[in-house]
Write a structure and sequence with these properties.
This is MULE transposase domain-containing protein. The chain has helices at residues 4-10, 12-17, 23-33, 40-63, 65-75, 141-144, 146-152, 163-168, 189-197, 206-221; strands at 101-107, 115-122, 128-136. The protein is mainly α and 222 residues long. The protein folds into two domains: 4-63; 81-221, no CATH class. Strands 1-2-3 form a three-stranded antiparallel β-sheet, with helices on one face. A hairpin with a 5-residue loop joins strand 2 (115-122) and strand 3. The protein is elongated, with a radius of gyration of 22 Å.
C-alpha cells in the first residue's frame, strides 16, 4: 500500500521546486510516476506534508543564525555582522562617503515572506556595488524608516525618488533633480538589478541564502 508519506518523500524535490503546482497536475504525476490513482484531496494532503517539513527546516535554520554570525566574525576579520537592528548615528557616517546610494527591498521566497533590504551604490567602473543588506520581519519604521532616517540623521543629504515608481504610482509626490549629486540616475535600477541577481538565493533557507549572497558578492568584488 502506498501511503501519503511515501508519495511525499518521492515528490519532495518536485514540490520544493514547483510549490504552486496545480493539484490536477500533481495527481497526473502520481499516476504516471508511481502508478497510483489518488484523489485531489489526497494530493492536497501530500503537498501539505511536504510544505510542513519545509517550514520546519526554515525554522531550524533561523535558530542557527547566531552560530552563523559567530562563524563569520571568526573567519572574516574586519567585516561587520550584526544580529540586531541599530540605527545609524552621526559617528558612523564616515563609513558612507559614497556620492550616490540606492535603497530598496524585496520579499524572500521562503514560507515566512520576510523582506530583504539592500543599500547599493555605483563603483568606480560605474557598476553596482552592494554596501549592506539585511533580513527583517517586515518593512516598518524600526527597520526601514527611510524618510525618517534621511530627515533626522541625514538632513543635508539629497533624497531622490525613483521616477519610474513615481510615474507608476502617480500622486502628489513629485520627482525632482537637485544640483548637489552629480549623477544622471533618475531610477533605482541599481537595487533592482541586485535584487534580480539574488532571486535564486531568495528561495532558500535563511543561512543558505545569506551564504550564497555573501560568496556571490565576494566573487564579484574579487
Amino acid at each position: 500500500m502506498v501511503t501519503a508519506a511515501m508519495i511525499a518523500q518521492h515528490f519532495k524535490a518536485t514540490i520544493k521546486d514547483h510549490p504552486k503546482m496545480k493539484l490536477k497536475e500533481f495527481q497526473r504525476r502520481c499516476a504516471s510516476e508511481m502508478h497510483v490513482n489518488v484523489t485531489i484531496n489526497y494530493c492536497y494532503r501530500v503537498k501539505k506534508i511536504v510544505k510542513e517539513k519545509m517550514v520546519g527546516n526554515h525554522k531550524e535554520k533561523f535558530g542557527l543564525l547566531w552560530d552563523y554570525a559567530h562563524e563569520l566574525r571568526s573567519k572574516m576579520t574586519g567585516s561587520t555582522i550584526k544580529m540586531v537592528v541599530q540605527r545609524v548615528i552621526a559617528d558612523s557616517l564616515t563609513h558612507f562617503k559614497r556620492p550616490l546610494i540606492g535603497l530598496d527591498g524585496c520579499f524572500l521566497k521562503c514560507p515566512f515572506k520576510n523582506e530583504f533590504l539592500t543599500a547599493v551604490e555605483r563603483d568606480a567602473n560605474n557598476q553596482m556595488f552592494p554596501i549592506a543588506w539585511a533580513v527583517v520581519e517586515v518593512e516598518r519604521t524600526d527597520s526601514w524608516g527611510l524618510e525618517i532616517a534621511i530627515s533626522d540623521i541625514l538632513p543635508r543629504v539629497e533624497h531622490k525618488n525613483c521616477v519610474r515608481h513615481v510615474f507608476a504610482n502617480w500622486s502628489e509626490r513629485k520627482a525632482f533633480l537637485g544640483t548637489t549629486c552629480k549623477s544622471d540616475i533618475v531610477n533605482n535600477n541599481l537595487c533592482e538589478a541586485f535584487n534580480s541577481s539574488i532571486i535564486e538565493a531568495r528561495f532558500k533557507s535563511i543561512i543558505r541564502m545569506l551564504e550564497d549572497i555573501r560568496t556571490k558578492m565576494m566573487t564579484r568584488i574579487v
